[in-house]
Amino acid sequence: EPEVTQTPSHQVTQMGQEVILRCVPISNHLYFYWYRQILGQKVEFLVSFYNNEISEKSEIFDDQFSVERPDGSNFTLKIRSTKLEDSAMYFCASTTGQGVGANVLTFGAGSRLTVL
Amino acid sequence: GQQLNQSPQSMFIQEGEDVSMNCTSSSIFNTWLWYKQEPGEGPVLLIALYKAGELTSNGRLTAQFGITRKDSFLNISASIPSDVGIYFCAGRQETSGSRLTFGEGTQLTVNP
Fold first, then answer.
1. pLDDT digits (tens, 9 = 90+) for A30-48
2. Which residue of A has its CA nearest to B5?
3. What is the pLDDT of residues B3-14, one digit of tens each?
4. Cβ contacts (< 8 Å) between B50 and chain A: which residues?
């Protein structure tokens, strides 16, 4: 079963530090996403990415956040200067974007970010 | 953003019982998805619904896309201990591109 892989599984950082979370989406998928889940809360959309550019972003995805697909396999989320409230589980997801399953997202296991 | 109201927030049931949970919204959705999340894991897709009125099963799970396109329910029959987890509904609107809006989740506990 193809899967979305994320690293690191857990990162602890000091407030103000930069963090990069990495994802390897499913190889034939074309649309990539980042979602986050603050402990005990629902999953929230951050950003979607297609054809090497952001296609949508939420109000949460401010100037402190950026995404990149540096090569043919990785998809990264960078937080430039972390704040306490950035502590959350960050999920990468991907989809083919085509056909009946176009909107069926496959999620990774998540990267837990703890900002101290 | 749009809200999906999911209920109940939590359920404590005995093994073998049936379970029902639902999501409602004031807005129309054109795709409804049900995901299960276990501790420390990402959401895993259970059922996807694409048309109003659609009723789809996956083993002991059955979900329906409401006729009004503003709601969906998930039923689990004959629950077993491994059904424990958080169940999320998620929907996609015509006007929201490919982004999914998630419900608040239903925490299910099954006592053996």
1. 999 999 999 988 899 999 9
2. A42
3. 899 999 999 999
4. 100
